[in-house]
Design brief:
The chain has 221 residues and is of the alpha+beta class. Among the domains are: 11-69, 2,3-Dihydroxybiphenyl 1,2-Dioxygenase, domain 1, CATH 3.10.180; 85-135, 2,3-Dihydroxybiphenyl 1,2-Dioxygenase, domain 1 (Roll); 144-179, no CATH class. The protein has helices spanning 19-27, 90-102, 144-158, 165-179, 197-200, and strands spanning 11-15, 34-40, 43-51, 58-63, 83-87, 111-112, 116-122, 128-134, 206-208, 214-216. The strands form three sheets. Strands 1-4-3-2 form a four-stranded mixed beta sheet. The relative contact order is 0.09.
């Protein structure tokens, strides 16, 4: 027996209402280009429209002009979709509350999910949508999933209930150490400011001038 190995999400298809409602939401609010349209090949009474969510994959919607939006929350029974999450940059995420408020769209405000920040709101048909912004960047050559896998091992070993930023930071360090060679004989963490006895007595953020007095080394604002 062998697996049917997947290589990424191909597309997600939703049942929509009328065509324009879908275009106004997916492109008009979330900025996903409307890239393709044809009849639903299994139901000629419906149109099948395609949007690019930003990574070249697809969100598609079956639409029909005699269907009207029903804003009641979609079912969360077993087997149903709870929500769909989309990645946004920090710059866009910081504008999300203001831009949702400007449209009068109810939302949760910012929620801390430990590995990312999130905002939740419903589309015109009651589907819960999440905008997510990662709290970390994976090292070059690795994915967010690689970092999460490593951080999970660290969290479990530490006996912590949930992941924290310290697990992410340590996971990134481990991945870099494992994948990047170094000429150093010892790559262990070090404190470069404690190599001289004079550094041991200096307060954090301070430096000595030529006369030996301690002055704040941080730039003034």
């Amino acid at each position: 027996m062998q697996k049917l190995q997947t290589q990424g999400l191909h597309h997600v298809t939703l049942v929509g209402a009328d065509r324009q409602t879908s275009i106004d939401f997916w492109e008009g609010l979330l900025g996903m280009p409307f890239v393709f349209e044809q009849p639903n090949l299994d139901n000629p009474m419906e149109s099948h429209i395609y949007f690019d969510p930003g990574d070249g994959r697809l969100i598609t919607v079956f639409t029909r002009e005699d269907r009207k939006p029903d804003p009641r929350r979609t079912s969360t029974d077993p087997g149903c979709v709870h929500h769909i999450a989309f990645n946004v940059s920090r710059a866009v995420f910081m504008q999300a509350v203001e831009r949702l408020d400007a449209r009068g769209i109810k939302h949760t405000g910012v929620r801390d999910r430990k590995i990312f920040d999130a905002i939740y709101f419903e589309d015109p048909l009651g589907l819960l949508i999440e905008l997510s912004c990662w709290k970390f960047e994976p090292p070059f050559g690795f994915s967010h999933a690689d970092v999460l896998f490593e951080a999970h091992q660290l969290r479990v070993a530490a006996g912590d209930r949930a992941i924290g930023e310290v697990h992410l930071a340590d996971a990134i360090e481990k991945l870099v150490a494992r994948s990047r060679p170094s000429l150093s004989d010892n790559r262990a963490a070090k404190d470069p400011y404690r190599r001289s006895p004079s550094f041991e007595t200096r307060p954090s953020g301070a430096a000595q001038d030529e006369s030996g007095s301690v002055e704040n080394a941080l730039p003034s604002r």
